Records
---
Amino acid sequence: MSGEAQKKYEELKSKIEKTVNPYITLRIPIPEEADKKEFFDLEKDQEFIEHVKDEAVKWVNNRRKPGKR
Amino acid sequence: MNITNIFVLIFALVLILLVTERYHRSVAALIGALLTILFGVEYGLFHLPNILNEIIDLIDVNTILLAVGVMILAEAITRTGFFEFIGLWLAKLAGSSFRRVSIILIVLTVFITAFVTTITAMVIMGALTISLARRFKADPSWAIIYEAVMTNVGGLMFMISSIPNMIVAAHLNLEFIEFTKISLPLTLILALASLPYIYPTVGRTGEPVKIAEANPWTVIEDKHMFYRAMIVFVSAITLFVVRDFIGVPLGLIAIGCAIGMLALGTREPESIFSSIDWGTIFFLTAFYVIVGGLEKSGVLALLASGVSLISTLNAAIFPAVNMWICAATSSIVDNIPVTMILIPVMDYVSKLAHIPLRTLGWSMIFGANLGGSITPIGSPASIIAIGILRREGKPVGWGEWLKRCLPLVSIQLLLASFYILFALGA
């Protein structure tokens, strides 16, 4: 695939993904006590990602409760 | 060395440069054109005082303008997000089955390719298919490959759908409606006939998912521009259709509408200009000069006498045989030079073997378009499809491609053969 076609493909895919598979991207700086390799491996850790998804839902639901901001 | 031998060598050099990809194909063609002009002057094919006019006479300016105009129109309409919008809207209607979604996207590919290049169509459909496959947790490999095959079916639909169509139609003086009356039925037949082959193998994996909440309008970033671009685009298609009655050359209509699109349908004309496939335009222009030189030097007459020997074996089925030869050649070499070289050859064959030129022209159009799907390097869409699958971690090699596509393309070529023999009355 040529560079131009590749770039167009990635741009389109990103645009469509946000419609079909909406997602947010977070930037999490490495905590001081974390091992570098283990921390970077979290990006591919499906169990961790599912856990973060669950936590995101809990957080949003919590926020909705009256008395919470 | 006599003039015919010189030009055979020039032609052989150009073919070698094209096949080996030593240079970009447009550069290979420009080198060939330059040698044609230099030796043409040397051997009296061109005359210096009038050389520019003689060269311009060789170039089909109408086809060049048509190609440029259609590219601008297609690029502008693509940038509005129209095709992704249609794809998502149809996918929502398909419901919760990735198999149904895949079939819809594969059929949509045929219609999209009727208006944009196979590369653009494949990039759009590839991005749509991969994104939707992720949602369904399905394997998109079969869908992507069949979309690449169907881009070449879509390339048959209208005169403007592919460069070989434009070249042959210009040579045969075929008008837009005349072309469509023959090309559209075959395109629809091939698309429908391919589905029974495709259906059992596509979208077998994945989980049922509802994508009803996805809003297709989110891919349209600027609705005003979208509506304006659509108005210009639909006007352009309408003018192509009524061209017979208004008598304006198609190339002028295309450029005129392209200017309208640049003025009304986009905020980024500079970006549109840089996205135009100028390599193909230079290639086309240069190849007209090369073919002109081959004709003037007698090389094409020589080629034609060889070909007409084959055609006399059975003049009735030769158009179908010609289609298969074009298809086989287009599976390895770019279909534009194949078409450009064969057109003047077919002129001679038509006269020598008494076969209607239009029938030969159609056989070239069918073969040049459909043949690109036979191998993974036969068409730009196939190369893009392979690239997409490699990026997504699902590489497909030659063996896999041939196993999946060769039977399908053979069915398509067989149907096209019957079409030539019976519907076109060859």
---
Amino acid sequence: MPDLGPFIVSGVAVGSVYGLAGLGVVMLYRTTAVVNFAAGSIGAVGALTAWELEQNGLADPLTWLAALVVSTAISTLYGVLIAGRLTDRDQAVKASATLGLTLLLMGFSYWRWSDTARTLRLPLDDHGFTMFGVRIIATKVFALGLAVAVAWITHAMLHRTDTGLAMRAMADDRSLSGVLGIDVRRHGALAWSMSGLVGGVTGLLLADLIRLDVATLTFLVVPATAAALIAQLRSLPLTVIGGIGLGVVESCGAAWKSVSDYRQIIPYAAVIVMLLWSHRSRTIPIVMRDGR
Amino acid sequence: MTRLRSLFGTSTIAAIAIAFVVALVVPMVLGSGWVATLTSCALYTLPAAGVGLLYGELRLASLTQIAFVGLGGWIALRFGIGFGWPLPVLVVVSAAVTALFGAALALPALRLRDLYLALVTLLVAASADVAFNAAGFPNGGSGFLGYQAFGDLQRLRRPAIATTDDGYFRLTVAVLVAVLLGLVWIRRTSLGRSWALIAQSEGAAASSGIRVTRGKVVAFAIATGTSGIAGALMAANLGQLAPSTFHVSNSLLLFALVVIAGSRSPAGWVIAALLYRAVPYFLSERGLNGHLATMLFGLAVMHNLISAPAGLADQLAGVTAKLRTRRAVAP
Amino acid sequence: MTNTRGRGVRRAAALVLGAALVVASCGGDDDGDAADDTADTAAAATAAPTPTDAGDTADEGGGTATTAGGTAAGGDAVCGLGTGEAATGDPIKIGAVVGKTGPADFSSASLGAAAYFDCVNANGGINGRPIEYLVEDDGWDPEKAATVAKKLVEDEEVVGMVGSTSFVECAANAQYYADNGVAVIAGVGVPRECFFSSNIAPVNQGPRLSGIGAAEYAREQGAKKMACIANVIPNFGGWVCQGLEAWGEANGVEVTSFNGQPDGSDAETIVQQALAIEPDSITVVEAGPGVIGYLKVGEQQDADVNWYAPTSAYDVAFPAAVGDYWFGNLQAEIEFNMLDSTGPHNTLWQQVIDEFGDASAPRDSFSQGGFLSAMIAVDALLGLDPASIDRASVTEAFIGVDSFESDLVCGPWSFGEGEHHNANHAGRIVELAADGSWKLLKDCFEVPDPELADIVG
């Protein structure tokens, strides 16, 4: 049995990143019923903007602010211009439309920033401590803390405020919410802004922790989705825990040489099995799809 | 002829005629670049048909169809290079094994609600991606995986009847037409008709004696089997394959394009494949920067999902129908 | 209902095709992209074969450079025949397939080659005939690589390929080139197939040799136990690290391989895995951004290990990106000469890329590779009768290249018959110095890859 200590520690670090990215997915799904494949690329464009401004000599805090503004703006614009016109379509179609945004943002990023070697450093990188022989930088602790905080705040907002109630109602049945007097447009835009903001923060952290590269950050949406699925796309705290679980399982797979190259499959397979288990009782929808 | 017409209808026969003309004429008038591109379009029409069948008939979103093309290609390379089996056998084996995988995936996954199913297929595609990179595609090595990092690279050869690009294009179109006819035929059987009811209401379908699970599993098997055929044909066309062709983003994109093009009709599947391969090639022929082309593509995906809910094929059909009525009214 | 439908179609069509046409017909290409506007150049060549037009060879982005070459004829840089006269004859078509769009942009070599061809065209061309350089993007997709190769070979009828750089092209097209008698002087070969194909000969060493070269230097510094980190892509990561393992076996160094995901998302885990065997040195063989990803984790762990990199780290933007922790702590093996070296060919490269290259063309070692491949090709073409240059004669001339001397590489470069081509097999070691610049540590030395037995003898 190999020494798993270092793998668990680094797995928690990677996993909290998955959890944080997964939070963005769940948050948006709970408020708008859209699974957003573009979450990663929205964050990446923000982070790349921060990098460019930093290269031009802007003070760091201002570049971070700019990143958040850019991410929030892209997400809000998409929510108003595109998502708002797809509300009555299948969830799979709504998700595919975010793929359109992903392509747009990826093409733009490569066109504007090419693939030059670059890094984004946050000041917390210089602090840290050692655990099981693995050094943990403060940025990772911050990421984990932030994930927990965002999960808690959003949870509280969704369940304790009128806005949160309106958003949840909207995700369940948009037209009915409209009839009940909820301003579906405004709340929809707000939900997209919030998810853009979280995407921007995540983008900055992930650019620091993983790699400042649009493709890498974009496709983190896959493990993020897996984390979200563990939480059944509902529970925010479970998403964070699920993400950490994924990270630990994946990382520990590296301890065994024979499975090492295939280890990223393990968490995905685990998620699929778990989903099947939790849906083992088969329900047959009686209602006709067109509402009859 | 009358019997053929009663089996498939006039529009199908017209479509076969068009395919025949395309197969004959394209290599005569277009250059090799375009012939290769259109061969690729013909290949990708197969997984597009799989997506279309599942989504158009059953409202099931499969985001993993191109990963199954990769699986089919892997199988063809393994048996083709390893044992020298001829292409027709490889196509059948690839189709059968991928269909089996598809059914194995579908059987449990059908308990899930629509979106969960879509996301599970996404995770399957991501897993396939990891597996293709870790295992490599067979290139003449020994062992189960047939991959070697040393030694002479081997490739699959095209069949003797279609060694040239033009010949292989015609062969691909012929296989495509055969598969599409098969799919159109299946839709008209009792199994195919049961899909429509299952899509509307599983409860209603079950209470009228339709075996819902069987209907869905068979649909999945057929849809993945067609992808397997495409994989075998692609492997024989190129000789070797690489994981980047089957990246998870490609499966996602193909789904979006099938929705845009129209999931219910073979014309829509063909349009989806043209959007997937021919439009990017056209843009790069025109000298457009590849990154700008990607951006344009993204915009087009968003725009068309909004503006063409029923799919481009449906709209085109609407336009031709309108023209026909106009002509009929005019003296 | 039908009305709205009709409008929908028009709008949809307007976007999918209309916008495409508008952008395309504007010329697009404002960043000097490698993907060539073949249709336009071809049209220009046939419609108006005037002296000024004949200089219009490479890609659209080089528009300003070609004009300068056509009128000012030369400037400082002297290439090819060095006549100072623009070539006006019937163009000779040369192709290249590069991986531009995708995980990394590999078009730099073709931009270096394009600059040299422009310079040659401004200096008498190939005995009066200009080179028309057609570069296609394979998008890191083997199927597209096969398609664009067919387009170049059959539709454009190029006489040969020069400066190609791709992760997928060699595997996809090696057989096709062999079957069609096309010779490829590749700018930068990356995966294994680029070095094991009868008709492809790269001018670089390849990641495997670059990694082994770095490891050999580590051994000289006392390394006994080494980790090799590369990505898992077939015919890349495994091939590279197995090379280090074979080298280690022959040289008494214990080498263990670790293969990460191509996007580097698991760099953290891979480094932990590597550190778990307690190596004294780690060699990372990846593209530049990948190397940085692993070094960043290495910096955080601050373990007592020496890190080594291949040629991909040797880039002017690299030191600032990787950070000052590594200043004085990182050595890399380089496949070409120092970017600021003063030999005649490197000096010419600097001049030509400034004068004829696109403003956005990188000044990196890939560009040196593309430039060198173009020099070798021009040298071979100049030995042919200009009137009878066709694919057969060019292929013969390319394969016949024997002992081309250049200060850009350590030893003479040859193409030659056979399945295995790796003429560039000696390298240099550079260090990321304490002041953040790259300094030469060790001049030319042979890379001891056991797989080279058939070439080195």
